[in-house]
Amino acid sequence: MASSPPDGKPLYRCLTGPDDDAFCKRVSEALAQGWRLHGSPALTFDPERHVVIVAQAVLWPTDD
Description:
The chain is α+β, with helices and mostly antiparallel strands and 64 residues long. It is built from one helix and three strands. The protein has one domain (6-59). The protein starts with 11 loop residues before the first strand and ends in a 5-residue tail after the last strand.
């Protein structure tokens, strides 16, 4: 595994978006690249769009 995240991304990222297949694919892609989940996902409801919004933090593993 690379010692630093791909594409110059930071060690910590918070992925957000509607709770749909596209969001799940983004998280799955991050995991496949080597990111690790950090904590539980957070959910909220957007009443204007009538959708659930989800946030999931991911961390790049380090030797620290």
